[in-house]
Amino acid sequence: MDFPKLKSIIEGLLFLSGEEGLSIKQIAEIVDQRVELVTDAIEEMIQEFSQQGRGVQILKIAGVVQLGTLPEHAVYFEKLAYSPARTSLSQAALETLAIVAYRQPITRVEIEEIRGVKSERAIHTLVNKDLIIEVGRAEAIGRPILYGTTKSFLDYFGLASIKDLPEPGLFEDSENLEEETQLLFNKLDLQQLEPESADPADDLNHIDNEDDNTDSSL
Q1: Is 108 exposed, middle or buried (0-12, 13-18, 19+ CB in 10 A)?
Q2: Model confidence over 180-199: pLDDT tens digits?
Q3: What family does the Swiss-Prot or TrEMBL record give for this protein (predicted)?
Q4: Which of 95, 101, 71, 98 is nearest to 178 (CA)?
């Protein structure tokens, strides 16, 4: 494999891995190349992204490599996140938000075990809207991201603290998930977060209990 192709593949892998990111060892195993070569490719990509004025950068955090936006562009991302046209959330995002609120800190895999479907898209939406945030890493293989709610979440709901959420026994499993989500948002009377009509791209794939019980970051 030539070096430019290797860098192109790595960029695609980092894009797909999202906030979970990948370790250099994981990337090396996927592309079937030496760790040293992958490390060289990533270092060169970091320099190229900076020199070319790209809108994203490659970050290395706690042994994990991931794509990230530039801090100096944050003001524009905030405008996008809080645009009136983006105030609604899909049913998938509402369910995910409710689960995070009641079960935080929680990993993506744990969210998916409760919902029974893939939840990466919903999580990405909620992070972009500053309703949930990474609060740490689980002490498990792969160190999956733990998610929790933000101050913006409390402000949206008019809550002084997370302890003020109603019905603390909700969201133990997926049996009555849709009904419990509706109950929660009815109690909170949060008009600006009324569910949108279902997006066919949301949660496209249902989880296979036998094959998908592990975090994709492993």
Answers
A1: buried
A2: 676 666 666 544 444 454 55
A3: Belongs to the ScpB family.
A4: 95
Q: What are phi and psi of 69, to 5 degrees?
A: -85, 175
Instruction: Report H helices in the chain.
Output: 3-17, 24-31, 35-51, 74-81, 91-103, 108-115, 120-128, 151-157, 177-188
Q: Is residue 89 domain-shared with residue 186, that is, in the same domain?
A: yes
Q: Residue 155 sits in which domain range?
A: 78-193
Q: Which two tokens stand for residue 23?
A: 């370790």
Phi, psi of 17 (to 5 degrees): -75, -15
Is 189 a member of any domain? yes
Integer Cα distance of 218 and 206 in angstroms: 20
Number of domains in the chain: 2
Query: Tokens at residue 11, please?
Result: 């960029």
**Mean of pLDDT values over 61-80:** 84
Give the number of other Cβ atoms within 10 Å of residue 166's Cβ.
11
pLDDT confidence tier of residue 135, bands split at 50, 70 and 90: very high
Domain boundary among 69, 87, 114: 69
More confident residue, 73 or 194: 73
What digits encode the pLDDT tens for the residues 110-120?
Answer: 999 888 888 99
**% of the chain beyond a pLDDT of 70:** 71
Residue 138: CA count within 13 A, CB half-sphere: 19
